[in-house]
Amino acid sequence: MHIHVTHTDGEAKFWLEPKIELALNQGLSNKQLNEALLLVRENHEEIIHAWRSYF
Questions:
Q1: What is the pTM of this model?
Q2: Would you write out the chain's pLDDT as a tens digit for each of its 55 residues?
Q3: What letter does residue 43 receive in the DSSP assignment?
Q4: CA dist., res. 23 & res. 9, Å (int)
Q5: For the chain, what is the domain count?
Q6: Cα three-residue angle 1-54-33, rounded to 5 degrees
Q7: CA dist 53 to 18, 24, 25, 27, 50, Å?
Q8: Which domain holds residue 26?
C-alpha cells in the first residue's frame, strides 16, 4: 500500500504499511519531503481508508 505525492518540482512515493516510509523521490527537496511526510502521517488513517475503498 502506497501513496504518490506530486509537486511541480517532482514526485515522491511513500509506503503506508507496515510503516510510513519513503520509497522514491524524484526532484523534491528535503524540506518538501518533510512536509509531505508530515501530511501523510497526519492523514494516515484517512489515506488508508480511501486506498482500501478504491482498491
A1: 0.89
A2: 999 999 999 999 999 999 999 999 999 999 999 999 999 999 999 999 999 999 9
A3: T
A4: 17
A5: 1
A6: 45
A7: 19, 24, 26, 30, 5
A8: 2-54
